[in-house]
Design goal:
Length: 254
Amino acid sequence: MSDKHYNISYLENTGLFLKNLKEHSYQPFSNIDQGIIIDLGCGTGIDAINMAQLFGNKVRLIGIDHDAIMLSKARLSNSNLENLEFIQSEADVIPFEDDSISGLRAERLIQHLQRPENVINEIKRVLKPGQPLVIVETDWAGLVFYDENINAQKKVIQYLTEVKINNGMAARKLTGYLEKSGFRNIKIEIFPFILNTLKEANDYLWIELILQEATQKGHLNNQEYESFLSSLKCADDKKYFSCSINIVVVSSIK
């Protein structure tokens, strides 16, 4: 399994699942009629492409990601939009001048950063005063399986938030990051997502792979792994499988 908790297929699957939330996260940029909007950590480019189509040619969309493979996919997906460009760069060195960007969006980026404060400060540097920032994050600590194997669940969440994902508690820290960096008009919205099949949990959370990896690395013992997975499969077979996780959308202005 990849050290990253995502790949191209994962981003494409979750992109469809989160379609309505994504569209909601574009709204703070809807009044921007010129200038540059950045989608930082753009991955396969789906959101940069959507916004480029939505906002028209007077607004230039820039997708930035550090992963060359993701950017290759993004460029292939671009339908010759003239107002869209993809750039390879690390998130803490955004290649734009101070106070030059009209808006910036980052989805499921902060959770992967070992030094998130540096990226938040870099975002503030490039944004024009009074312009919007939107951050979308997964609240991994709030992952819930309605299953009796509570201790195994706690260990899986601990593995995700403290080992697997660099900044697994990022969703709960976002408002603090923004406060410390001096952003204002901070607003937080919480969107719950319910998964009703084990297939959905595997598509959108990689849960069986995570259980295997947590066991291989000693965070679950074999008995806990087998009992938990068997219980999830049983619930799925009997049509009462239920899992929930929250996605947090935080908006602010510089």
